[in-house]
């Protein structure tokens, strides 16, 4: 979490970002900033534009308006090793005949061309697997994992390049409670290293205490921004006990 208000330039900045998909405008002018070491949750009802926003932020869907990563306009940004992206699981999980280690290692390939992975890469892969509690499953086929474990593999893959910005699309979706806790711990570790995080969530769940700000979208626009105090209230709600059920944001319609 950010310690002090900072005047440093944001790690990610969207200014009046618009995007159209299938001939329909789905982002109608999104303003959003993520500061260094800040954790920002993107919330909103189904179809409000959360995934499209994060996909636009990492250059996966064409968008117009002001979009900068590390103060560089997206169209000129090349330093993708500074960004770890965890897509929605359904778009990334389909029948991969590879081991856990292979999938996580692919996170080290960005920008390497055909150079083989070295000792430093292997150590980074092992560290990432330890962070998500799957070091002992490195040699297993990913198909043998549960949904929650699979999600942890995708997060480890994003962590292997030791990113300064982590962008995650619904990392808790379909994830069992144990995996949610492991993910919260891994995220806490990243935040302690001043990594910035933008994540799409439906429920804050065990991540609530880590979140500095939530940005709520509605119909392709920012409807409101909530700060730490409000989020803390939600995290302290009697129903927010992670042992019983995830924190309800009340944003699902
Ligand atoms: N490839 C596509 N082609 C056409 N329309 C799309 C496409 N992808 C998304 N959309 C539409 O864009 C709108 C925003 O979708 P998006 O996935 O960004 O919303 P979301 O807030 O992430 O929703 P959810 O919570 O259901 O994941 C929706 O109306 C969706 O149907």
TrEMBL record:
SUPFAM superfamilies in alphabetical order: P-loop containing nucleoside triphosphate hydrolases
InterPro entries reported in the protein's UniProt record: AAA+_ATPase, ABC_transporter-like_ATP-bd, Metal_Ion_Import_ABC, P-loop_NTPase
Pfam families with a match to the protein in the record: ABC_tran (PF00005)
GO molecular function, one term: ATP hydrolysis activity
Domain ABC transporter: from-to ranges: 12-244
UniProt superkingdom: Bacteria
Record carries keyword ATP-binding: yes
UniProt keyword list: ATP-binding, Nucleotide-binding, Transport
Record carries keyword Nucleotidyltransferase: no
Entry-linked SMART domains: AAA (SM00382)
Family from the record: Belongs to the ABC transporter superfamily.
Name of the protein described by the UniProt record: ABC transporter
Naturally occurring in which organism (per UniProt): Streptomyces carminius
